[in-house]
Amino acid sequence: MAIGGISGAGSYYGGYQNFSIGGSSNSIAGSSNAAGQNTSINGDSKDQSKPVLNPGESEEVKPGRKSSPAECETCKNRKYQDGSDEANVSFKAAAHVSPQAAGAAVRAHEGMHVSNAYKKAAENGGKVLQASVQIHTSVCPECGRVYVSGGTTTTQIKYTNDAQPYQANAKSSDAANGAIGGNFDSAA
Q1: What average pLDDT does the segment 3-17 reach?
Q2: Cα gap 44→27, rounded to integer Å
Q3: Which residue from 136, 131, 120 is spatially nearest to 87, judged by alpha carbons?
Q4: Which end of the chain is flanked by fewer CB atoms within 10 Å, N or C?
């Protein structure tokens, strides 16, 4: 049971797609003309402003990165999809979640899997022995932002139904091997 980003390589969780933003802004001491375009010293017209794809994010380009978080095409196009067989959870169809909201969305989604485990155990006479959620993070290769890339839920349910052959065999095996009453305390 997991949710993760869709990648071109088809990884189960996490992942990304590389995109590049074309153009360069190498003009020296440009000025703006009436049309709003930047003009370099030698008269070549270049538009130095890159589109802001992720408003409210930093426009600083970190060393070794292609773009800033505000201009990151990869973060804008990242989608999440559930990889489990449970039909009543979110993200069955791929959906975009902003990097700021991804942590809360993934935690809520994995919480649905935990809730389903408790419901399944209650309906079938079982007991949830363990339920854990792992939240996975990754680093965007384009802008360097650390983001929540997915999650994994692990559950263990114990069923005490005596009608199951395994359960009946286990009880008879315990009785034959002396496990019943094996911890008798004669001092008490």
Answers
A1: 40
A2: 9
A3: 120
A4: C
Query: Of 50, 48, 61, which is closest to residue 21 (Cα–Cα)?
Result: 50
99-137 pLDDT, tens digit each: 999 999 999 999 999 999 999 999 988 899 999 999 999
**Cα separation, 90 vs 3, whole angstroms:** 9
Instruction: Tell me, yes or no, if the pTM score tops 0.70.
Output: no
Contacts of 69 (CB under 8 A, 6+ apart): 54, 57, 58, 75, 99, 140, 143, 144, 145
Residues 6+ apart with CB under 8 A from 80: 3, 4, 5, 6, 91, 94, 95, 96, 97, 102, 105, 106, 150
> Where do we find the tokens 């600083």?
60
43-60: per-residue pLDDT in tens? 444 445 567 777 777 888
Give the number of other CB atoms < 10 A from CB of residue 93.
8
Q: Would you list the domain boundaries of the chain?
A: 2-15+47-176
In whole angstroms, give the CA distance from residue 62 to residue 68.
Answer: 7
Residue 103 pLDDT: 95
Q: What sign has the CA pseudo-torsion 68, 71, 77, 80?
A: positive
